[in-house]
Structures are given as structure tokens and as C-alpha cells.
Amino acid sequence: MRGIAFVWQFGEVLLAIALAPLFSGWIAKCRAWMQNRTAPPLTQQYRMLRKLFLKDVALAENASWLFRAAPYVLFGTMVLAAAIIPSVVTDLPFASAADAIALIGLFATARVFQALAAMDIGTAFGTLGARREMMVGFLAEPAILMVFFNAFLLFGTTALTGMVDNYATHPSVFDPSVVFAAIAFVMVLLAENARIPIDNPATHLELTMIHEAMVLEYSARHLALIEWASSLKIFNYACIGIALFIPWGIAIHGATVGAVLIALLTLIVKLALCGAALALIESISAKLRIFRAPEFMAMAFLIAVLGLLVHLLLGANTSA
Amino acid sequence: MNAHLWANFLNSVLSHPLGSTLLIVACWPGIAIACLLRPHSIRYVARFLFPVGALACVGMFLLAGTFLISGHSTEVMTLPLGLPDLPFHLRLDALSAFFLLILGLSGAGISTFAAGYFRSGEGTAPGLLGLHYHVFLASMAVVMLADDAYLFMVAWETMALTSYFLVTSQHRILEIRRAGFLYLLMAHLGAISILLSFGVMQGGSWQFTFDAMRNASLAPFWATVAFTLALLGFGAKAGLVPMHVWLPEAHPAAPSPVSAMMSGLMLKTAIYGLLRVTFDLLHVKFWQWGVAVLALGLFSALFGAIFAGVQTDMKRLLAYSSIENVGLIFTGIGLSILFAASNMRLFAALALSAALLHALNHSLFKSLLFLATGSVLHATRQRSLGKLGGLIRPMPWVAALALIGTLAIAGLPPLNGFVSEWLLLQSFLYTPQLPHAFINMLIPLGAAALALTVALAAYVMVKFYGVIFLGQPREASLAQAHDANWLERIGLAWLAAGCIAIGVQPQLALHAAGRSTGMLLGQIIAPDPSVWRIAPIAPEQASYSGWIFLAVILCVVAVTFLAVRLLAHGRVRRTAAWDCGYPWQTTRMQDTAEGFGQPIRHMFGAFFRMERDLPSPTDLTPRYRVHIEDHFWHAVYKPIAAGVQRLADAVSYLQGGRLAIYLLFSFLTLLGLLVFVL
């Protein structure tokens, strides 16, 4: 393995950690524009993190070690995910640690830790949020698995780096099933990242919140780490989407420094477009009642299965 | 000189693995008899003899492990015991060694825990408990070593009987006696089915050695009959839906180490039996068998996960989770049969490795969790989830070790449950290459059902752990709960260490499973060139590295922690939790296990028979009651039971109670026989 690969690896991780709050800030800004509100500055997320890190932690009396450790674990899993997802280059030494399916497992680890931490204090909201979060999780997993199944049929691999390599070297690969998979993926992305229509990141209304209910007891540096991990999560999901559906521009194996710089620029442009699109979807849809969430996720699942069937029926070339 | 002797001894042990294994197996009946010497002394039986049994388990684990790693060839032996002309045939091959490894590995943890767990004055005398316990262990080992149907059935029945006595060790409680009878009944129905299956498989040679069955040439019809009977028999033992009804009754009724033995080890003997019959004796003939096993397995898995989600008794929850995990193992076996019968040996080996590894993993984490519930039970005298909570504070050791088991069973990396479930999902990916177009369209849905099951399992385990260990204690008495004693902690830590080791470094376990797939299918999954990761088919296609997972997460946690401390500060102020402006809350107002079951009841209502009493809003003493049963009980078992009852009533007319009538019957029978003979 070449030494330069480790440079790319660490560069990419640091980039993800640094850019993630900006991406969340960009989505919030776009939302504000579309809703005719005064937009917060792009750096709002960074300021919030700084403020939270400097505050004293107000910890519930009966909080256990699990409650205090969970934010760090959460942050750690999201950083690991960022190390695996090829956002700029595919020449990543750590990428072989997990294929797309193992990545689902990694996100599940984060989810379980967050849910357990939410139950630790024993307040009504924490447990309620944990239960709802786990419910959304088990609804989303079959759908996202079908998306990756479809990708496997197309590219003959479940490794994200392999998919990007295959896609970029065979630009002619286009299959109608990809469209279905993309729609299903976006629906899962919205559900998994506590966005409208499943959850609303801006609400503190008791009856509807999921993510906010889970983090209600957190404060200061713990909350900062959780918020940072959340923005890393949506950043990671966006990067998975980019790698799966619009990988052009990502520097594939053995790329030069110039290609990597171009890849970096394309990534920023793509993320900007993705963020705007997410804000648009969020602005034009309404929050669903919690028990409509299964229907929404079932729809995502069915769309993904439909894509799979389209692929199988068309009898397309299974490995490009 | 001494070292030389030891080397010689070790060498002779390793060159006669079957003999050494038998010596270890013989230790357990020896301990069992020793238990009777001072049957009422808890110190002698539990604190002294159980650890000796645990040492034998460790020996078994090491022996089976070296047998598998060194790739020793199959060894057979004939013991001149048993009936005249029917000697015992024994055989140690890769498959039996793999299951003996499971037995030794988990058995060591369970026996160590049991040494600290059993208290005097709980049901059966400790000596009898120890007797049954160790005979049970030995019979499971003999099941895996048997090379003829006779010895197999003898061991199988010994296993069923000893476990029955263990389940009913608190026989003064009516429910436990009933659960025991149900278990005994189902065990025997299964045993009859297995016996008939062996009867078909001997194929007219009337030789009941497994060698004869291997070489018998069965007509396709009779092969399928034998397979179906074996599936029914072993499925009943494994708790496959719809033969699962005994499992959620019997496992919670037993003392916790016995629940752990039954769930962690005894269910695996059924898996072993099915693999032995299907792959070794019947040589996997038809892909339709695979579809049947796959469908039953997937349904059991989903069924178990859904029912686990609505349980309010912690041991019943784990029992349903066992049904789920057995379902996952059967799913892997089904896929493997499907691939093997379509002559895709590599993928068959992948699916079978996943199933074997999951059997190993399940024995570790399920034993761990059952044992943890035992500690909780002793500390609090509560089994109901509605009366627990907040135990992470008084019981930090049990809570920390149970957390590892919880994360493992929820299928989360970098622990062991994830590895086998990942391998199973990987083998689903290759199903579109099967030569059956229609099946190909359906199987992806199977993969989705699998993903749903795994995610539901995570939901269930968050409920399990969260309600027992997190939150606030729902009863005042929980504050006095004490942590497990040191023998219990060692037992739990042994199993937890296994969960972590296999999760981070699954190569060795996969290597061991590979011996079995090599023997049964003539194919092993490709070893990865790098020791850091596993890549079952090819590194370009999919790979997973537990090391990188663990190392990166730990590094990031450490760096973040230090960075936050250095750049900001570590000040903490303890305050009360936010009470929503309503200070009159009690700890009983926390979300309950029923509350956690509510989304499941809502979404999967069709699976349940539910009776629910909702209090009216004006009721001053409101009571909420929900009772959940499964459909099989009413649709299958009750009609059969009623039919048997009617038949018995009809026959009971013969039993008039008058001697003259009975003599008349004898006379008529004799007359009839005379006519028949002449």
C-alpha cells in the first residue's frame, strides 16, 4: 500500500469532520431561503459547537457511565464511517474495513448507543425517543439493504470504493433500476437523519420529536459531540448517495494530486446541490404522524424492490 | 526430562484426539457420581465440583480447537459397550469437532457461572442438580460423537430426560411442572420423528451405523421422506416454528444456567443433527429441500423477533430471541442446501460457514444474557421487566458484561453477532446466480426479511437492556440489589471475551468452520491474504475488518476525549433530570416494556392473538392487562390435543373396571392370534 494513500485517508477524514457542520449549516440556510426567513450565517453550526464546548456539563444525578461515554462512541462511529466512504478518493486503506452492508451495521451501532444513552436517565422523553428511533431504524434497514443489493447486481461488489471504481471506469453503465434505488435511498436518508417527513430537526414539540427527545438530557460538550456526530451522519449519507448515484469526478485508484483537487471541488459542488435538494424536499413536505412512518418506509422498500425486479426482468448484464 | 515427558504426553493426546475426547467426556459422568457423595452440601457440589466440570469443558474446547486447526483426519472407534451385537460406533470429524468446540467454549463459562449461582434451598437437592447437569453435558457430547443411530438415540434421549429434570428442578411450582411436561412431550415427538428418519435412511440394509446410511442408495422419494422427518425432529428440538411452543415455556422455567445450557448448547445439537443428516448422510440431493429450510428459517426468525418484542418477562424475551437466532441459522443452512444442490459449492460453503459461525456466536451471547438474567434474578427476585430498572448502578459488573452480550446479539460491529449476520447477508447476494428464475425473484425479499429481523433484534435488545439496566429503579427494593459474585463474574467475562474475540478476529472461527464445510461440501471459502480482515469470496467484492473498527473507534474516542479536555475543560455539575415541570413523577411512571412492545403490536398485529383490557377513563382503580398468544397454539396444538383427548375417551370404553371383561379381552385376543397363526 502506498504511503500517499494514508495521506488521502487522513485528509478525507479531517475534511469530513471539518465540512460536516458546514453542510448542515448550508441545508439550514437553504431551508430558510425557501421559507422566506432570514437565513442564519453558514458558520452558525461552528459557533454553536464552540459555545457548547465551553459550557459546563449539567448532568442528571443518576446518569451512568454509559450516558457519558455514548457521545464519544457516537462521534467515533461517524468518523470511522467517514473514513470508509469514498467522498474524494477511492484509494483508502481503511475502506476495506467495511463494505456497504457493514456500513449499515456501523450506523446501527451508533443508533443503539444513542438509544441506550437516551434511556439511561429514565425520563419519559428519552425512552420515547429511543423507542421511536429504533423503530425507524428497523423500518429503514430492509429498504437500504435492497438499495445495496441492487448496487451489487450492477457492479458485482458491495464495497463502496469498488462501486465507484467500476462506475467511473464504465461510464456507459446505466440501468433504469438506479433511478428507483436513488429514490428509495433519499427516502431512507430523510428517515435516518431525523429530517421531515419522519422527524423535524427544528422542533421541540413533545408529541412529534424523535432525535431531539433522545438528546434532551444532554448538555455542553456531550451535546456538542452528538450534534457534530449528527451532522457527520448526514454528511456521510450524502457522500454514500454521491458515491452510489453520481460518482463522476471522484478520484479513482492511483489518481494524481491534480485529480484529487478536482475531485474535492466536484464534491463541494455536489454537496451544495444535494443540500439544496434536501432543503427543497423538506420545505415542500409535511411531517408525518409517527404511525405513518411505517407506510413511508414501506414505500421506500417497495420502490427499492421494484428497482431490483426491473433489473432482474430486463436481464441486464449483472457485472459491469 | 520432565518437559520431555510432558511433550510426549501432549503428543499422544493430540495423536489420539478421539480417545482424549472420550476421556474428557467420561469426566462428566464421574463428576455426576461424585455429586451424589454429599448431595446436600452446596459448597462441595457447586463451589468444588462445578469448577472441575468447567475445567473439563476448557479441555474439550482446547482439544476440539487443536483438532480443527491442525486439520487432523477423521477418527473412528468401536466401543464394545451397549447391547450384544450392537457395539457403540464413535467418530470424531470436523463437524462434530466444531460442535464440541461450541460445547466446550460456552460450557466452560456456564459451568463457572453455575458454580457461583446455585444456592441451597432452591428446589432439587444440589447433588441431584449436579448429577443431571453433568450427565446432560456428557450426553450432548456423545450425540456429537455418535456414529450409529443406536448410540445417537440413546444419547439424544438421555439429553432430553436430564434436561427435563433440570427444567423441573423447582417442581413445586405448577407452571414449571406444566412447562416440563410440554417440553418432554415435544422432545419425544421429535425423537420419534428422528428415529423414523434413521429407519428410512438405513435403506433396507438394516444396518444402523452412519456408515451404512452414507452408502445406502435411497430412491428420491424415500430420501425426501427421510429429510422431512429429520427436519421435523430436529426442528422440534431447535424450536423451529411451528414446533416452537415448548421453548418459550421451558427455557424460562429452568434455573438460569440451565436455560443458558438449553438455549446456548442443546439447540445446537439439533443444528448438528440436521447438518449431519442432510449433508453427510443424505448428501444434499434436491434444491427444494433448501427452499423448505430457508422458508421455515426465515419465518421462525421473523416470528421470534416479533414475539420477543412484546414480551414482558426477561427470560421469555430471551427464549423468543433464541427462536429468532435458530431461524437465522436455519436460513443459512437452507441457502447452503440450495446452493449445494445447484452445484455452486463456493457459495454453499459461504452460507454454511455463516450458519456454523452463527451457531457458535449464539451459544456465546445467548448463554451470557441468560446468565446475566440469572444474576438479576438473584439480586432482585424479579423476572418481570415491569419491576426492574436502573440496575447499571448497583450491578456494574453484570451490566457491563451484559452490555457486550446485548450489542453482540443485536448484530452490531465489531462484535461477533455482526460477523455471522454479515456473512449470511453476503451469501444472499449471490442468489441471483441460481438457475431458478422464479426463486431468484423471491429470494431478495428473503434478504429483506433477514435485514428486518436483524434490525428488530436490535430493537428488542435495546428494550431488554434499557428496561433492566437503565433508567430509574421501578421498585424501591432494587436499590439493595447486589452485584454477581466473583465466580459468576468469571463465567460472564469468559463468554463476553469470546464475543469480542470472534467479532474482532473471526478468522480462526471461520477457519474452524471451514474444516466442516470442507468435509461436507468439499469447498472452503477463500482465505483472505491479509490477517486483518475477512473477505469471504474476494477482497474486491466485500470485506470486513473488526480490527479496524475497534481500533479506529477507540482511537477517535481517546483523541476526542483528550482534545475536549485540553482545548475546553472537564467540568461537570450534577443536577436533577428535567421533569417537564411536573415534579410529582414517580419512577413507576417510566416507559415500560409494554410501551416498547406497542409499535410491534401495532405493526405486526396479524401475528398475535391479543386480549386486552383497557381501563375506562373514569375508573378510579384502573388496571391495564394485555395477554398475547400465538396463533399456532390455537390453530394447531389445541385441535390436536382435543383430538387425542377424544381418541383416548373413545378407547377408555374398553376400560370398564371389571375383571371378567378384561379376561374376555385376553381370551378374544388369544383366539384371534390362534386364528392368525393357524
Task: For this entry, give a set of tags.
heterodimer, A: 1% strand, disordered C terminus, B: 678 residues, mainly alpha, two-stranded antiparallel sheet, globular
In short:
With 320 residues, chain A is mostly helical. Chain A is built from eleven helices and one strand. Chain B has 678 residues and is mainly alpha-helical.
Helix content of chain B: 55-70%
- Total number of strands of chain B: 5
What is the succession of H and E elements of chain A? Answer: HHEHHHHHHHHH
Count of discrete alpha- or pi-helical segments spanning 4 or more residues of chain B: 23
Q: What Rg of chain B, in angstroms, do the CA atoms define?
A: 26 Å
**Strand percentage of chain A:** under 5%
Query: What letter string, H or E per element, gives the SSE order of chain B?
Result: HHHEEHHHHHHHHHHHHHHHHHEHEEHH
Task: Report the biggest beta sheet of chain B as strand number plus sense, adding barrel if it closes.
Answer: 2 strands, antiparallel
Structural account:
The complex is a heterodimer of chains A (320) and B (678). Chain A is built from eleven helices and one strand. Chain A is mostly helical and 320 residues long. Chain A has one domain. A two-stranded antiparallel sheet of chain B has the order 1-2. Chain B has a two-stranded antiparallel ribbon with strand order 4-5. Helices cover 69% and strands 5% of the residues of chain B. The longest helix of chain B is centred in the middle third of the chain and has 36 residues. Chain B is mainly α. Chain B has three domains: 269 residues, no CATH class; 281 residues, no CATH class; 44 residues. Chain B contains 23 helices and five strands. The chains are: A mainly alpha (320), B mainly alpha (678). Chains A and B meet through strand 1, helix 3, helix 4, helix 5 and helix 11 of A and helix 16, helix 17, helix 20, strand 3 and helix 21 of B.
